[in-house]
Amino acid sequence: SVVGLQASGKTSFVNVIGSGQWSEEVVPTVAFNFRKVRRGNVTLKIWDVAGQPRYRSIWERYCNGVDAVIFVVDSMDKEKFDTARFELHQLLSQPTLEGVPLLVLGNKNDLDGHAPVNELIKAL
Ligand SMILES: Nc1nc2c(ncn2[C@@H]2O[C@H](COP(=O)(O)OP(=O)(O)OP(=O)(O)O)[C@@H](O)[C@H]2O)c(=O)[nH]1
Ligand SMILES: [Mg+2]
């Protein structure tokens, strides 16, 4: 399951994993997208969940029972780190998520001025 604030780049990330292609033509996700991606003998079933405030309460439903959660952060958007931190910790405090592996992915690090990893760790 891929979650994180709106415009952090979740759908773009899943597109790149799925088709190896980057597109500027990405629209904000409504609710969620489901995508199956095959890599060798592995099939990834990916929930790409919407990040706008009204959808955040459904994250838990898509994270509950998965093999891993990826929390995507826009490492350029420092003003949203506090909100990202709040939402991440809110999600992790759900009893249903106990023991689920988590990857925090600092995205948009192609842009000049993005927060380095240790700043992201501190902020989140
Ligand atoms: N420079 C740069 N831009 C990115 C990157 N990833 C995504 N973007 C841009 O960020 C914007 C939002 O990307 P989306 O993939 O739609 O973000 P999202 O997290 O799926 O957003 P929601 O579906 O609304 O939750 C788009 O304009 C993307 O082109 C990246 O790694 N670098
Ligand atoms: Mg999206």
Low-confidence stretches: none
Strand elements, count: 5
Mean pLDDT: 96
| Spatial strand order of the main sheet | 1-4-5
Helix content: 25-40%
Which hetero compounds are present in the coordinates? guanosine-5'-triphosphate, magnesium ion
Number of helices: 4
Radius of gyration: 14 Å
Structural class: alpha/beta
What's the shape? globular
The proportion of residues in beta strands is 15-25%
The topology string of helices and strands comes to: EHEEHEHEH
Largest sheet: 3 strands, parallel
- Give the end-to-end Cα distance, rounded to a whole number of Å: 19 Å
3D structure, described in words:
The strands form two sheets. The chain has a three-stranded parallel β-sheet with strand order 1-4-5, with helices on one face. With about 120 residues, it is α/β, with parallel strands linked by helices. The chain starts with a strand and ends with a helix. It is about 25% helix and about 25% strand. The longest helix has 12 residues, at about 80-90. The structure holds guanosine-5'-triphosphate and magnesium ion.
Primary descriptors:
binds guanosine-5'-triphosphate, 124 residues, 27% helix, three-stranded parallel sheet, binds magnesium ion, globular, alpha/beta, single chain, two-stranded antiparallel sheet
Question: Quick gist of this model?
Answer:
This is P-loop containing nucleoside triphosphate hydrolase protein. The chain is an alpha/beta fold and 124 residues long.
Question: Helices and strands in order, then pairings?
Answer:
Elements: E1 2-3, H1 10-19, E2 32-39, E3 42-49, H2 59-63, E4 69-74, H3 81-92, E5 102-107, H4 117-123
Parallel strand pairs: 1-4, 4-5
Antiparallel strand pairs: 2-3
The structure holds guanosine-5'-triphosphate and magnesium ion (MG).
Guanosine-5'-triphosphate is lined by residues 4, 6-12, 24, 26, 28-29, 50-52, 107-108, 110-111.
